[in-house]
Amino acid sequence: MNVTSLSLAYFFLGLFFVSIIFSFYFKILFIRTNPGNTHRDKIIGSMKDPISWRSRNNRTAYISMFWAFVSLAVFVYLKFFHKAGLINIIYVFAYVALAALSIIFLGKLKKEVKQK
To answer: Which residue spans traverse the membrane (predicted)?
Structure first.
């Protein structure tokens, strides 16, 4: 299945905005759970391990920001440097798979560090 490069470019622009929103969300969670913040007790409550939770939110914010910039770079390439034409949809699936694997790997990495 093929898609036009222009529509795929705007798809990646949409992914850029979604990734930016996720990045800000996780960064706000990280900031609002700082010790001494008034929102800390409302968010954390009776959580068992808030320190690793805060660390995971911070890393997820940075990973989301990374994928936002990758999406923006792909948008710029497809919009301005690629000739109009058809592109195989498999590239979109590969992009989504890489993003999902990076998040899954992040979770696995933390569990391995805890066990040592």
So the answer is: 6-30, 61-80, 86-106
Cα–Cα distances (Å) from 25 to 28, 30, 62, 64, 85, in that order, read: 5, 9, 11, 10, 36
Encoding tokens for residue 45?
A: 């409550």
Instruction: Spell 42-77 as b/e; 16+ CB within 10 A means b.
Output: eeeeeeeeeeebbebbbbbbebbbebbebbbebbee
CA separation, residue 97 to residues 35, 63, 74 (Å): 36, 14, 16
Rg (CA), the chain: 18
* Span 75-109, pLDDT tens digits: 999 998 888 888 888 988 999 899 888 877 876 66
Spatial distance between the Cα atoms of 71 and 82, rounded to a whole number of angstroms:
15
Give the count of domains, the chain: 1
How many whole angstroms from its chain centre is CA 108? 16
Domain containing 49 equals 2-115
